[in-house]
Model the fold of this input.
Amino acid sequence: MDFTILILVLPLVSFLILGLCGMKMPHKAAGIIGTLSLATVTLLSYITAALYFGAGRTAEGIFATITPYNYCWLPLNGTLSIDMGIMLDPISVMMLIVISTVSLMVHIYSMGYMKGERGFQRYYAFLSLFTFSMLGLVVATNIFQMYVFWELVGVSSYLLIGFYYTKPEAIAASKKAFIVTRFADLFFLIGILLYGYYAETFSFTPPEALLVAAGGVIPVALGLMFVGGAGKSAMFPLHIWLPDAMEGPTPVSALIHAATMVVAGVYLVARMFGLFIGYAPEVLHIIAYVGLFTALYAAVVACAQTDIKRVLAFSTISQIAFMMVALGVCTSSDPHSGGLGYMASMFHLFTHAMFKGLLFLGAGAIIHAVHSNEKSQMGGLRRYMPVTHITFLIACLAIAGIPPFSGFFSKDEILAACYSFSPMMGAFMSLIAALTAFYMFRLYYLIFWGKSHYEEQLALYKAGATAHEPHKPHEAPLTMTLPLVILAAISVVAGFIPFGEFVSSNGEPYTIHLDYTVAATSIALAVGAIILATIMYKSGESRLTTAINSRMGAFIQAAYHRFYMDEIWLFVTKKIIFNCISRPIAWFDRNVIDATMDLLATATQKLGNILRPMQSGNIQSYSVWFLGGALIIILTLIFFA
Amino acid sequence: MIVPAEFYLILATILFFIGVFGFFTRRNLISLLVSTELMLNAVDINFAVFNAYSHPEQLEGFFFTMFGIGIAAAETAVAIAIIINVFRNAKSIHIKNLRNLKH
Done:
């Protein structure tokens, strides 16, 4: 498996080429270089997966963990060192496939979507950097390497959100994303350092004796690491950056803020799963409840948003929370009793990456066609954009959990895991799944059905009411529709992958079998929600919609404003932290530390002013000083010696 | 009669301090040169006197006097050459005008 190093090297090389001399290239060349290198990486990832899973299981009945490369990068002391390398195990190989596939689709799609944009080459350079970092993150051999790439992923996300750097909203959003995730990463780092200090290792699977020796620190360290993961994966209340991150180009949202980077937190928990389950099961339960609340909150907010990318962003938060919940409800590492959630979470991560990537790319095609993010500018688009319409519908059905689309299978496993944890948890999650179906179909109907904004404007124009002829929506070019079709195809069939054969909590094969009561309930709820959405939104605002809006106006307003979470954060940071902590510190800095330094400087300067006239360059005055000195020495010698 | 050594020493001291005074107060390079010569000659007198009065059987003091006179001559030649060059450049040998060597 020595060739796996190429999976990391190729995107890095294309980043360097495009970053250093991309600006001299024509747009097309830059796009082709980036896409070709990614296509190679994708191919290599598939080969890796085929070889890895094709090699079969070891005598213990698990897939062996292979470490083709592992170099000691920074030895800290005799036992502790920071290594860099590549580790292949079922989840990292699975992630390689997810990342390279979605990234390749986004590369191809961007050739159409970003055509003619200023900084096209820079865009591809950043995409390559991101892909490199994300791949490095998933194949990390130890927690510290993961952290290094984790930050690299954060910085590429920052660069890509702020791609339109002349737009103030984009700059603000990129800063917000970076600062919020960085704030969470601080806890991650503390967790890693605690873990490294007390367990004397950065390994994911340390010897048991070390962990026993570390004792009570392990749950604390793992909890802190989860805070880092919660920041990256937009768990409540650290979710505030993700909706704003939609200011970036839409393909970037698909790649980073839907399919890959935001699931890094889930991946982290899955990576450390053995430690969580063995030494900190209570932290797992906290993760479950945080996830449950986030899923509910984000689903409710998604129902009230008008910007289609925001709806998708909150939907992403909600779905990632599903994965977190699935990990959190695990009570043992045996997939047959209590460890099902691990497999379900990874399965959902896989299918979600595909259909959510598809949804975002579809949304990009729509935005490309109507030049707006607002639902009021859309409506009736199904006649103008047939390919986008069909693929978007498939993705909606997948996320809503309608069989035989992929989302149904993975979500069903999550729900089954939740029901086996506690019926209450299961009931809540079923409810949230129904909400998911509702808001996705609300979005679908608002975009593709109802009154066409274009036709209304055209009628107005013909009647002479408006001066400008409206822009006719058009289907996206082939470079954009091709990835849509491929991802749609994957979203249809991915559910039939025997995922449990490859990934499970203890590595042993697990055959996915549907729990028919759970499946029937969730299908019924999803269909009910879709019917409700159909009644409410299919032909514009129906009477039911108006009635609901007038009854629950305040609630809908609050949900539209995301229950004022951003305002609460602003209040906490600006009013409390700024006034109570930053200001006194600034005062101390200015009046104590700076003042001491200033005093030293002023004193030196004053002294210099006094002494400077002595260095006049006038030899006669020097000789007077010389004579005086000589006299003093002579007199001293005469009278005191 | 023999002139006592103190007389010579007093002469040398007076000569030396005339030189010092001239060196400190004069602003003309030639005067400064003359003043240094006075100080050197005062030292020479001291050498000769101490040799003659304390160690009449030895000659080191006289030799040092000879060296002093030789060095004074050489030094004067160099100093005069410098002063001529200074005058060529600055059109003056007044010490106040000679502040540009620093730069």
